[in-house]
Amino acid sequence: MDRASPVPLYFQLARQLEQAVADGTLPPGTLLGNEIDLAARLGLSRPTVRQAIRTLVDRGLLVRRRGVGTQVVHSRVRRPLELSSLYDDLEAAGHHPATRVLVDRLEPAGPAVAAALGVPEGTGVHYLERLRTARGEPLAYLRNHLPAGLVDAAALETTGLYRLLRAAAPTLHTARQSIGARAAAPEEAALLAEEPGAPLLTMERTTFDATGRPVEFGSHLYRAGRYSFEFQLMVRP
Question: E strands of the chain, at which residues?
Fold first, then answer.
């Protein structure tokens, strides 16, 4: 701790603990002990330690459990905004993704799906619902519409949708995407291990191949406490 720094001590402590969680020094499940012991060990005041812990609890990195103490939980997944698969991003970050396919069927395209995929309303399209987990914990509820016959969904328990699309489409080229937030409906909350009404991040994406053909329309829900999108903003010349 740098006591001469203008950065508050609680913030310095929170930042060091966050880094220790991120690099695996404090793996999920680690008990930090109570505030009195931590303050004595670190030579800090109890209010300073309490504020640092509260900061990380609010960020979803720590949790207070009655009778157990303060414990490290899984870090939030931070995903860059680029044309990539959630499965691939999780795998690359060492989060051990897994998928449970909930729905796999052909159905007539409604107005929104038909417009997104560029097909007449009522055209048969491939509809998928999946629950994506990371390190055994529910993370995302994924709903996708695809042109019929484009991919074989049998492999989706063990691989990502974009891997199948890359094999089927000429080249994935661009996507149109919107991000928002809303409260979880009861059935969504049950799937994602949240309380009804809990905040969820929403994402809608239409993906196009190199010929301009729409190959996917996705409508996804993510746990707000376990997931975030990262943006890189550039100044216009």
Answer: 31-33, 62-65, 69-72, 77-80, 97-108, 124-134, 137-147, 172-183, 199-209, 214-223, 227-230
Distance from chain centroid for Cα 147: 26
- Between CA 170 and CA 210 the distance in angstroms is 6
**Can you tell me the distance from the alpha carbon of 177 to that of 42, in angstroms, rounded to the nearest whole number?**
46
Give bridge partners of residue 174 from the DSSP assignment: 208
d(CA 106, CA 125): 5
pTM here is 0.63
Q: pLDDT digit string (tens) for 207-227?
A: 888 888 898 999 999 988 777
Asked if 80 and 230 touch (Cβ cutoff 8 Å), the reply is yes
Burial of 210 (0-12, 13-18, 19+ CB in 10 A): exposed
* H helix or E strand, kind and range, residue 14: helix 9-22
Residue type for 188, please? Answer: E
Instruction: Give CA–CA dist 102/142, Å, rounded.
Output: 10
CB within 8 Å of 48: residues ≥ 6 apart: 9, 10, 13, 39
